Automatic annotation (TrEMBL):
Similarity-based family: Belongs to the LysR transcriptional regulatory family.
HTH lysR-type domain residues: 1-59
Protein name: Transcriptional regulator, LysR family
PANTHER family: HTH-TYPE TRANSCRIPTIONAL ACTIVATOR TTDR-RELATED, HTH-TYPE TRANSCRIPTIONAL REGULATOR
Keyword Transcription annotated: yes
Highest taxon above the source species: Bacteria
Length: 313
C-alpha cells in the first residue's frame, strides 16, 4: 500500500464525505479510494467511517486519525516546499480565497497580469465572504478585510480600509447635508448586516493624536443587507446614507454620482482600525508561489492604494 496516498485519500474523503467526489478530485477511480481506506482500516484495526445513504461520517477513531494525519501531511508538504524553494521559479497551483465584492473589483482583474508574469503558476480561486479554514480547505493565501483576530496565521498588510459617509446628490437635496456625525441620527441609514450593531464610530481627523475627539452615532433606517454592493446600489438610487469603503465607491465619487460628507471625520463600523490583508498559514518558509502573489498584489495596489487616487479621503 502507498501509505501517504492512502492517507491523502482518507483526508479528502473525510472532507468531501464521498469516495466518488474524492476520486474525481484526486484523478483516480472510486474503487481506488475505497481500497485505500479499506487498507488503512485493516492496518489500524479500526473503522474510520460509518457508511450511510447520506454519505461518509467519521467514527471516533476516524476523527483522531484525521487530526494527526493532517499534521503529518502538513509536515510532508513543508518538507517538499522547503526543498523545492531552492528552485527560485514560482510554480504549482495557488489556491486563493477572497471576499466577493473586493475580489471582483481588485483581485480578479489583476490575475491575467499575474499569470502572465508567472506562467508556471496555476490559480484556483474561491470567491466567498465566508472565512474559510485555510488549513482544512487547502488554501495557500487569503485576502481578508477588517481587524485581524489573534491567530497563528501570518499576515501582510496590503492597504488601509477606509470607509466614508456618502449618499447621492438627490438624497442630500431632499434631506439636507449632515454637518456633524450626530446629524446622521435624523437620516435614513443603509446598514450592513455584518456590522456588530446599529452604530457608526467617528474620530475627528484634525484633533491631536493623544486626545482624539470621537463619537458613536445610533442609526435608523429601513434597509439592512449583508452585501456591500447592494448597499452601494441603494445609495446610488438615493435611498439613504451609507458608510462604504473607498475601494468600492471611488468611481461613483469621481463621477459625482455619490457625495462624500463629514470629510473631517474618520468613520468606522467599530473602534478597531481595519485594513486589507494577505493572510497565509505559518510555515518555516513561505512558498515561492505565495510570496510571488503577495508581493505582486502589494505592488499593484500601491501606497496609497490606487483606488484612492484623486479622492480627498
Amino acid at each position: 500500500m502507498d501509505y501517504f496516498a492512502a492517507v491523502r485519500a482518507f483526508v479528502h474523503a473525510a472532507e468531501r464525505q464521498s469516495f466518488s467526489k474524492t476520486a474525481l478530485e484526486m484523478g483516480v477511480k472510486t474503487s481506488t479510494v475505497s481500497r485505500y481506506v479499506s487498507e488503512l482500516e485493516k492496518d489500524l484495526g479500526i473503522a474510520l467511517f460509518n457508511r450511510s445513504t447520506r454519505g461518509l461520517v467519521l467514527t471516533e477513531g476516524g476523527r483522531v486519525f484525521r487530526e494527526h494525519a493532517l499534521l503529518a501531511l502538513q509536515a510532508l508538504d513543508d518538507a517538499r516546499e522547503l526543498t523545492s524553494s531552492l528552485n527560485q521559479t514560482p510554480q504549482g497551483v495557488l489556491r486563493i480565497t477572497m471576499p466577493v465584492a473586493f475580489g471582483h473589483r481588485h483581485v480578479v482583474p489583476h490575475l491575467p497580469a499575474f499569470m502572465k508574469r508567472y506562467p508556471d503558476i496555476g490559480v484556483d480561486i474561491v470567491v466567498t465572504d465566508e472565512t474559510l479554514n485555510m488549513i482544512e480547505g487547502g488554501v495557500d493565501v487569503a485576502v481578508r478585510i477588517g481587524a485581524l483576530p489573534d491567530s497563528l496565521l501570518m499576515a501582510r498588510r496590503l492597504a488601509p480600509h477606509r470607509r466614508i459617509v456618502c449618499a447621492s446628490p438627490g438624497y442630500f437635496e431632499r434631506n439636507g447635508t449632515p454637518a456633524e456625525p450626530d446629524d446622521l441620527a435624523h437620516h435614513e441609514s443603509l446598514r450592513l448586516a455584518l456590522q456588530p450593531d446599529d452604530r457608526w464610530f467617528f474620530m475627528k481627523r484634525k484633533d491631536a493624536p493623544e486626545k482624539p475627539k470621537h463619537t458613536l452615532v445610533e442609526l435608523k433606517g429601513r434597509f439592512r443587507g449583508d452585501d456591500s454592493e447592494a448597499v452601494l446600489q441603494l445609495a446610488l438610487a438615493g435611498c439613504g446614507v451609507a458608510l462604504l469603503p473607498t475601494w468600492l465607491v471611488g468611481t461613483a465619487l469621481r463621477d459625482e454620482r455619490l457625495i462624500h460628507v463629514l470629510g473631517d471625520w474618520e468613520a468606522r463600523t467599530a473602534r478597531a482600525e481595519p485594513a486589507i490583508w494577505a493572510v497565509y498559514p505559518p510555515k518555516k518558509i513561505v512558498s515561492s508561489k505565495v510570496r510571488a502573489f503577495v508581493d505582486f498584489l502589494a505592488e499593484v495596489i500601491g501606497e496609497p492604494p490606487y483606488w484612492d487616487d484623486g479622492l480627498d479621503v
